[in-house]
Inverse folding.
């Protein structure tokens, strides 16, 4: 076998390098960035250097440099201008070879099209070529000047109210009834006229009189899916969604609970002392009105577990509470009540009898004290009348405020969704809350989409002596019901001069409204831009989501329905390795002889028993099973209509009781709880017996 010499080995490489140099020469010949002679000279020098085998490395370097220089210089081809500089040199050369000249078409007689074929601007599935009148025009709003998205939020409170809570005599002539008003464009008492009018007259076009007041009109021509996609891409907080909760509302509550220093799930008085004393097994009582399907309540029950008890009222129907979808919390700790008629009521909060019935129900179940806080998230569709949302929902807002003053205990808190607050009626309602609570603020959480008019009024520390205000709002609601379907309406609940007499209050409302308007304008303009340009997106959505969940103490988990399990497996899971023989021990009958053996006496508990001890395990709702403690026996489904929080283990006895009197008396079965072992997943066996007993009440 003959060994090839060095010249033979390098011959293919030399040919390849020569080809590269020729390619550089050819590509450079059409460049107008430098004289052809200089380019040819560089290429010729490269070719010369490559021909000698003694300077192979040097020739290779010079050839590469010459090729790069030639290619960089070739940014535009002959016959083109900077108009086409956005296109790469390869496409320019292809057009040049075909004889393209700017301003002329291709072909022998330049008969081809002169302009570049534009990318499709088709929006959605509407007809090909259809132009949305007005929508493709630019809005004169710099949405890019919006604040940098952040998980940290600031709260601005109203100044503390120094005036006395108004009494019945003072409020006797406050309510003003007049002609029903169905326009809002002239409501400039609590929003700067210039800002309000600039919103309405944006760019002077009727179809652009949008944002805030007729804000959604410009989007009405869009397909709903288009609008939702653009909104999703434009909102930096959109990916937070509902995490493992029922809906997004739960995350709004988680958001605000953190921002307000756990004011709701760990309420404190004005001195910073907890309102709920856990050592005394006291429950956190809360109410949730106008809040179906129940996201707010699911969050509170998830956070507090069995330490909380909730009461709810909302409209019966498709938006009712969906307790079966409370995957992350025990819905057995939440009791819906629909006003007059109880469980058979309609849940309409605007009916006075429903308000009274719900108030009595809550007070009866809280030792006449009321709840620690109330949440209200009422709203209804105002499609096509977005600019009138504040006017159309005025009675709903009033009734939610009235409910808070009816069921919240002294020192308790209140949070309620509001919309625009331009009219003196709405601001008057806020003023009454301002008088009745220690501190009040208007707040828009980051979990509330920036383009809508939604805000929350947050009230801290209900004062003593608010009964007259409650009665006054109750009478206003009756008047609103009387004037329904007429041309008259209640236009004022607090005189304008009284509101404006408190300059600090008025200044706060104006600042809040104007700031909210400005942010909403930018958010709507941003959505408008994202609809026009589908390539736009918010790059930090995933990062912001992680940051918010970490800050709010919410695990980043998917929503999963609770897995079904058999009672025996759940039992062993709950007792955590405890010897099963202990559960077969039977209580000792108390006699004079056994009494002598009890030393010390405080280590024992005695109770009247009506039957044998059994163990009760709850798997959620009515999935309750009993076991008599013998290993040979199995768990049996309880044949009684009752509910028990999941992951609960009790020591009980099934007894018979007599209900009723005389001939109406009948025997019923009842569960007598002897002891608590595990409550909603929490092992309480190490706690004192008295504490365990109070937990079951």
């Amino acid at each position: 076998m003959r060994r090839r010499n060095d010249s033979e080995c390098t011959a293919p490489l030399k040919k390849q390098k020569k080809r590269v140099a020729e390619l550089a020469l050819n590509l450079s010949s059409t460049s107008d960035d430098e004289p052809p002679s200089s380019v040819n000279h560089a290429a010729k020098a490269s070719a010369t250097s490559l021909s000698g085998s003694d300077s192979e490395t040097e020739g290779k370097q010079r050839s590469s440099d010459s090729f790069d220089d030639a290619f960089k210089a070739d940014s535009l081809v002959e016959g083109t201008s900077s108009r086409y500089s956005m296109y790469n040199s390869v496409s320019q050369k292809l057009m040049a070879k075909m004889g393209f000249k700017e301003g002329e078409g291709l072909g022998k007689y330049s008969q081809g099209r002169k302009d570049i074929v534009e990318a499709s601007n088709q929006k959605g599935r509407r007809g090909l070529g259809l132009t949305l009148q007005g929508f493709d025009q630019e809005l004169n709003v710099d949405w890019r000047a919006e604040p940098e998205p952040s998980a940290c939020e600031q709260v601005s409170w109203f100044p503390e109210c120094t005036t006395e809570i108004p009494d019945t005599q003072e409020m006797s002539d406050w309510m003003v009834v007049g002609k029903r008003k169905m326009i809002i464009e002239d409501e400039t008492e609590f929003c700067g006229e210039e800002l309000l009018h600039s919103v309405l007259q944006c760019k002077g076009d009727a179809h652009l009189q949008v944002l805030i007041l007729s804000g959604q009109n410009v989007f009405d021509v869009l397909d709903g899916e288009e609008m939702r996609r653009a909104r999703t891409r434009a909102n930096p907080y959109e990916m937070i969604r509902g995490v493992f909760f029922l809906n997004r509302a739960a995350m709004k509550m988680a958001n605000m609970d953190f921002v307000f220093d756990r004011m709701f799930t760990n309420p404190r008085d004005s001195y910073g002392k907890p309102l709920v004393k856990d050592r005394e097994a006291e429950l956190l009582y809360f109410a949730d009105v106008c809040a179906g399907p129940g996201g707010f309540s699911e969050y509170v029950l998830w956070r507090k577990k069995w330490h909380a008890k909730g009461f709810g009222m909302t409209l019966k129907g498709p938006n009712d509470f969906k307790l079966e979808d409370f995957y992350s919390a025990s819905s057995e700790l939440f009791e819906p009540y629909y006003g007059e008629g109880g469980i058979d009521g309609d849940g309409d909060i605007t009916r006075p009898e429903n308000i009274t019935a719900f108030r009595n129900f809550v007070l009866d179940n809280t030792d006449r004290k009321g709840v620690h806080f109330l949440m209200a998230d009422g709203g209804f569709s105002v499609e096509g009348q977005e600019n009138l949302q504040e006017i159309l929902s005025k009675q709903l807002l009033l009734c939610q405020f009235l409910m808070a003053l009816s069921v919240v205990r002294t020192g308790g808190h209140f949070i309620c969704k509001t919309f625009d607050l331009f009219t003196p009626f709405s601001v008057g309602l806020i003023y009454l809350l301002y008088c009745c609570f220690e501190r009040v603020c208007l707040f828009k959480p980051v979990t509330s989409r920036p383009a809508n008019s939604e805000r929350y009024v947050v009230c801290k520390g209900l004062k003593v002596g608010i009964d007259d205000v409650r009665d006054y709002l109750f009478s206003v609601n009756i008047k609103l019901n009387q004037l329904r379907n007429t041309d008259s309406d209640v236009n004022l609940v607090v005189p304008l001069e009284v509101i404006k007499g408190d300059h600090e209050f008025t200044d706060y409302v104006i600042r809040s409204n104007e700031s909210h308007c400005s942010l909403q304008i930018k958010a709507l303009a941003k959505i408008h831009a994202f609809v026009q340009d589908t390539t736009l997106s918010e790059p930090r959505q995933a990062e912001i989501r992680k940051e918010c969940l970490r800050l709010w103490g919410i695990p980043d988990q998917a929503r999963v329905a609770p897995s079904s399990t058999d009672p025996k497996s759940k039992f062993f899971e709950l007792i955590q390795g405890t010897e099963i023989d202990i559960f077969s021990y039977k209580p000792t009958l108390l006699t004079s002889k056994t009494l002598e053996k009890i030393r010390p006496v405080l280590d024992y508990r005695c109770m009247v028993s009506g039957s044998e001890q059994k163990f009760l395990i709850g798997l959620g709702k009515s999935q309750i099973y009993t076991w008599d403690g013998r290993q040979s026996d199995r768990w049996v489904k309880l044949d009684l209509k009752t509910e028990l929080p999941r992951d609960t283990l009790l020591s009980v006895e099934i007894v018979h009781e007599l209900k009723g009197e005389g001939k109406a008396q009948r025997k019923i079965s009842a569960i007598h709880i002897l002891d608590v072992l595990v409550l909603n997943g929490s092992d309480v066996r190490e706690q004192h017996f008295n504490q365990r007993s109070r937990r079951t009440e």
In short: The first strand starts at residue 176 and ends at 179. The chain has a mean pLDDT of 83.
